[in-house]
Amino acid sequence: MAALLSLDQALELLLRLADEEPIEEVESLSLVEAEGRVLAEDLIAGVDLPPWPNSAMDGYALRLADWQGQPLPVSQKIFAGQAPAPLQPGSCARIFTGAPLPDGADCIEMQENCELLEDGRVRFLQPLIAQRHIRPQGQETRVGQRVLGAGTRLGPVQLALAASLGQAQLGVRRRLRVALLSTGDELVEPGLPLGPGQIYNSNRVLLGGWLRRLGCSVLDLGILPDDLQQTRARLLQAQDVDLILSSGGVSVGEADFLGQVLREEGALELWKLALKPGKPLTCGRYAGVPVIGLPGNPASSLVTFALLARPYLLRRLGVERVQPLRLQVPAGFAWPKAGGRREYLRVRLDGGQALAHPNQSSGLLISADWADGLLEVPEGVTFEVGERVGFIPFSELFG
Ligand code: AMP
Ligand code: MG
């Protein structure tokens, strides 16, 4: 038997393929439209942030050297959005959060530590400290600084950062176009009656929704029957795409026509992964278009998409960090027998411990709904209750 390919090896191969075919077209989008997309060029700060020193507090601004412990008169009031006059020597300025610091001031005291006297002067109740409560110019970014790198995925924080720099449009990579195929004679779309031996197509919804969340535009080619002619014809429909993503039908079984067509007319690598669930995976090319064939069992589709297809897609868009965050969490159960394949268990975090769903069958999705994420059990590893094990939250994977 051929040696199994480790998950790390498979990922490395896929990322190399992705690096060879980066999406290069760029479109300029408004910040709202750019949500979830990948930045195509570095974002360089065109302004200092903040653009001028300003107050972090509601209070009073003064020059520390003017103060020997005596109350000071208030010479001006500065609200956010106003341009202050230089500070009159021997006085203080009423100032509010976000208002520019007047020239000459070098200290702000918050109003809670000040007493406004009846004659209008302000007494400072505690020792004052230079630069206190002042946000200096350029504290966050300086003109010319690289704030976001090309390849950054744009979420609310990154878009808000671009907004704070005054950027209205961003250059982003065009959407990846992915043709989605569900293979199998047994599949029926929800809403239609089930015939004998048939099941509803769930992978189409799982993978289609996931692809859209990743910012892909999906060409849904529906269900592909287990038939040679139709497999060929359907693959040829998927020409103007960056990837054909299929589920099912890729092994070397008699009804695995997708695998057969790819082997005979395309280029096919059939990988047997040291992975559970999700042992068989196809990677190939048909009429020039890259193909990734995921295993058909829903939990296998989920795991292989999460750990292989998702990073591949992100890397095509130039994303550098394509791996999901892994947290270390204590196991709420023991793993006494080391396995030969890396296993991903559907687990829930309960009281800070990972509990595994009792049914880890690759045919089930219901345990993935129950779970908060995947516990990563490397090949050859055992662990005791309480030992820390790698955990990937679903929120990392689906975002
Ligand atoms: P296959 O990889 O085609 O041998 O399929 C493996 C298992 O996954 C079989 O039990 C299939 O019925 C099931 N399966 C394949 N595709 C889907 C799908 N799109 N939705 C739900 N189950 C599927
Ligand atoms: Mg099948």
Entry summary:
This protein has helices at residues 7-20, 156-164, 203-213, 228-237, 257-265, 298-316, 366-370, 394-398, and strands at 26-30, 43-44, 54-55, 59-62, 74-78, 92-95, 107-110, 114-116, 122-124, 134-135, 146-148, 169-173, 177-183, 187-188, 199-200, 217-224, 243-247, 267-272, 275-276, 280-286, 289-294, 327-330, 342-350, 353-356, 373-377, 388-393. The protein is of the alpha/beta class and 399 residues long.
What does this structure look like?
This protein is of the alpha/beta class and 399 residues long. It folds into four domains: 7-25 and 175-316, Molybdenum Cofactor Biosythetic Enzyme, Chain A, CATH 3.40.980.10; 28-48 and 152-173, Molybdopterin biosynthesis moea protein, domain 2; 54-135, Beta Complex (Molybdopterin biosynthesis moeA protein, domain 3); 327-393, MoeA, C-terminal, domain IV (Beta-clip, Beta Barrel). The chain has eight helices and 26 strands. The chain has helices spanning 7-20, 156-164, 203-213, 228-237, 257-265, 298-316, 366-370, 394-398; strands at residues 26-30, 43-44, 54-55, 59-62, 74-78, 92-95, 107-110, 114-116, 122-124, 134-135, 146-148, 169-173, 177-183, 187-188, 199-200, 217-224, 243-247, 267-272, 275-276, 280-286, 289-294, 327-330, 342-350, 353-356, 373-377, 388-393. A six-stranded mixed beta sheet has the order 16-13-17-21-20-18, sandwiched between helices. Strands 19, 22, 23, 24, 25 and 26 form a six-stranded mixed beta sheet that branches. The chain starts with 6 loop residues before the first helix and ends with a helix. The mean pLDDT is 96. It binds adenosine monophosphate and magnesium ion. The site of adenosine monophosphate has 18 residues, from strand 13 and helix 3. Residues 179-315 form the MoaB/Mog domain. One of its GO terms (molecular function) is metal ion binding. InterPro entries: MoaB/Mog-like_dom_sf (IPR036425), MoaB/Mog_dom (IPR001453), MoeA-like (IPR038987), MoeA_C_domain_IV (IPR005111), MoeA_C_domain_IV_sf (IPR036688), MoeA_linker/N (IPR005110), MoeA_linker/N_sf (IPR036135). One of its GO terms (biological process) is Mo-molybdopterin cofactor biosynthetic process. It catalyses: adenylyl-molybdopterin + molybdate = Mo-molybdopterin + AMP + H(+).
